[in-house]
Amino acid sequence: MKLLNRYLILILMAVVSLSMITACSDDDNGGIVTPGPEPEPEEPNLVELAQSDENFSTLVSLVVDLDLVDVLANEELTVFAPTNAAFEAISEIIPTLSNEDLTDIVIYHLTAGTILSSDLGAQQDVEMVLGERTLIQASAAGVRVNNRADVVEADLVASNGVIHAIDQVLLPTQYRVAIEGPSLVEVAQEAGAFNTLLDLTETVGLTTTLQFLGPYTAFAPTDDAFATLFESVDSASLTGEQIAFILTYHVIAGAEVTSDMLEPTQTVETAATEPIYITADDAGVRVNGTSNVVTPDVDAANGVIHVVDQVLLPNAFTPVTGVIAKNYMLSTLFSVAAERPDIVAALSDPDAELTVFAPTNEAFEAALAAFPDLTDEQITEILTYHVLTSAVFSSDLSDGATVETLQGEEIVVTLGDQVLINESEVITVDLAGSNGVVHIIDAVLVPPSFLE
After folding, report:
1. Can you give the residue ranges of every domain in the chain?
2. Do domains 46-177 and 181-314 have the same CATH topology?
3. Which of 97, 213, 288, 335 is a Cys-bridge partner for 326, taking CB atoms 3.0 to 4.6 Å apart?
4. Superfamily covering domain 181-314
């Protein structure tokens, strides 16, 4: 029995020894253990990332002093981070600000979520944590915020967001207004008479444009002017695109046009790429013939406002009578037509499709000198000889075509170096109204029967 126990013990020792030898032989490199790959270093949070860049030391100091470290370390944010040089540019102002002021300013540089430069469109509003919006523009030239600060280094990615370094400190409205003066928007808000204009501007997303870009000249209709318009136009029927078109038709971009700069007459392109017609004389300034400037030259930091008593409507929102009425070059035509209610009614018919060949004031003067003894009936015939009962654009004209007029006789189209209607040259084409199109001509068309 004792002998059996000894054998068992020997066998067990042999098995254990063999197991240890086998384990050692399985180790790589002859028993030398190779350490595994080192773990990836943790990505820094926004605070740590800013602390690692000496260009943000002023911002970091403010974040620490204002107890904002937890916010920037834990929330997912996009930070438009002013460099030290940006803060140095307002170093004289900073000591005058309270901690509450400085907190507002810092928070105005933060927006929720992660926005990389590749996420940006050409222009967008971005709401900041403070509750105000910034205007961010992106192009091949770079990214610009509030038309003030350029992004000098983009897409510094942290574990909880991203930093974009900017070269100017962004200022919330109250500080911007105090330092730089009010924009067109703040001037209108302060006046209290432009609530409809401001509401519509906000609806179509133009508020930040008029706050931060410019310079602009704005013809601002009062609340009463909009109320008058909406008596005949259902505001709910207007699309956002149409509202934006109307509003930008009130703005001259790239210039501050004050009343002392005006000539007696001028045609000026608007931001809607359609002109307005301005006249100035001892009686005052009028736009498009009927809208009076009731308060001129209201200054703003990014432009000037002229208050008007009527809403200006682009051609597409007026019949051909409106297209003619707004143009000071056609005032004689409009005056002569206005004396004939039947003609005005025909040209204002919203269901009509019309073409009007509109002689200039000079053309009418020449015709009246050539035919001094015209009767009212003959003048009416001449006027209706300038009207077609279909909308004919310049692209529809063909050389040698003859077209019957509202008067009953035909006109002849000639295409060459010039476009001629009978013997009259077309000098401006395709002014499209809501019920047709107007072409301006340099001579009055005389019905052939008048020459017999």
Report:
1. 46-177, 181-314, 318-451
2. yes
3. 288
4. FAS1 domain (2.30.180.10)
Domain 318-451 matching CATH 3.40.50.200: the answer reads no
Sequence-ordered alpha helix ranges (H) in 192-265: 195-203, 207-212, 223-232, 240-248
- φ, ψ of residue 139 in degrees (nearest 5): -150, -175
CATH of the domain spanning 46-177:
2.30.180.10
The residues near 103 (Cβ < 8 Å, ≥ 6 apart) are: 66, 68
